[in-house]
Amino acid sequence: MKNSIASFQIFTLTLFFIGCSTSSKISALKPEPSTNTKIAYNNTTSLINMPLEISLNEIQNQLNKSLNGLVYEDAVLEDDKVEMKIWKTAPIELMDKEGKIETVLPLKVWAKFKYGTDFMGLNDTREIELNGTITLLSDVKLSNWKLSTDSKIEDYNWSESPSILVAGKKVPITYIINPTLSIFKSKMAKKIDDAIESSCDFKPYVLNVLKTLSVPFETSPEYETWFKLNPIEVDVTDALVSKSKITMDLGLKCTMQTMIGQKPNTAFNKESILFKSADKIADQTTATVAAVSTYESASRIITKNFQGKEFASGKRKIVIQKVDLWSKDGRMIIALDMTGNLNGTIYLSGIPNYNTITKEIYFDQMDYILNTKGLLTKTANWLLQGIILKKIQENCRYSIKENLEEGRKSLMPFLKNYSPMKGVFVNGTLNDFEFEKVELTNNAIIAFITTSGKMNIKIDGME
Fold first, then answer.
1. pTM tops 0.70
2. How many other CB atoms are found less than 10 A from the CB of residue 385?
3. How many C-beta atoms lie closer than 10 Å to residue 277's C-beta?
4. CATH number reported for the structural domain that contains residue 60 in this entry
C-alpha cells in the first residue's frame, strides 16, 4: 500500500512539472566565465603603400620664396682682387634632366676688380654690371625625411660678353670674370641646396596625415561602432626625379580596429612612430581590421533580435527577454532569460564563426549545457528538441555587414582628394572586406577582416 502511494505521488509530481503547470521554474547551473583578466589577442599589422609625389613646380615655388634679392656678396677686394654682389632678378626655374634637377637662376652681377701690377702703382680698378643666368645640376636624395640635393654650377650665360673700356676700346674680360665666378660656385650651389632642404621637410606633413587618421570615428551610430588606426612605422624609398616630379614610396605599418561600444581613446604619439628607409615597398595595400565586439555590446544587439519573438512547441511557448554572453574554455556561453511556459535562464554553448556571405557573427555547434539541477531535462524536454534550438540559434547572430560597409564609406573621404593641410592631397582605392578568423578574449569577440587597395599622397601648393 505504501509503495502504491509513493508511486502515485511521484507520478503526480511528474505530471505537475511536465504538463499540469502553466509555468515551470528553471534552475540551471551557471557556467562561470574564464578567470583571465587580460584582454590579449593577436593583432595583425597592416601595410599601407602610399606613393608620395611632389611636383618640381612645388619645389620651385618654395625655392623662390627662400631666395630673393641679394643672394651672394663678397666685400673683400684684396684677397682675390674682386668684390662681387649677385641678385636674383627673376623667378628660378626647375626642370628634370636625366634623373636630376636642372636649376636656372636669372641674376645680376655687380663686380669691382683690380687689374694690372702693383709695381710702381701700375694698376687700376673697374666696376662692371652683368645680366644673365647660371645653370645648376642637382642630384636628389631623401635624408631624414628632408629632400636634399647636391648641386653643381654647370654653365653661365651672359646677356652680352663682359668687357670694359680701356683707352676708348672695349676689352673683353670674360676670361677674368668666369674664373673669378668659379670661386663662388660651391657657395652659390650650397645656397640652392640649403634652400631646397629647408623648404622640403616632409615629416611634419606625414605626421599630420597620420594624426588625422588616428582619431577614432564612428562608422555606425546604430551599432555603436568605431574605427581606429594605430600607426607603428613609416618606411620610405629613395627619391626619383622624372616627368617634372619627384616620387618616393611610403609604407605605413599600422594596426586597425573596429570597436563596438564606447568611443575608444585617441592614443597618437608621434614620438613612438619609427621612420625608416627601405629599398622597396610592396605596391599593394594589405589591411587587417580587428572588429572588436565586447560581450556587453554583442549581448545588447542579440537581445534586440529576440524582441517580440515567441518560440513554441505544440501548446508550449517561451519568449526570450534578455541575452548575455561570455567565454569559457574557448567557447561562447549564451545565457537566455525567458518567460512563458518556462521561466528562468538556460545556457547554451557555441563556437563563434563568421558568415562571409551575410557578413554575420554567429555561433556554430550550439547546444544546451545539461549540467542542470532540479528536473530541467524532464521539464524542458520539449525545449531541448532540435527544432527549438535551431530557431534560437538563428537569432543568436549579429551582422557586421553594415558596420564594415559604413567603415568603408567612412574611409572613402580620406581617399578622395583628402587634404589634411594646404597643398597635401591623399587619394586611393579600397577593395571589399574578406573574413580571416575569429578570436575570443575574456570580454570580447574579435573578427579579423582583411582588405586591400592603393593609396597615394601628392604635394602641390603648400604655403
1. no
2. 11
3. 12
4. 3.15.10
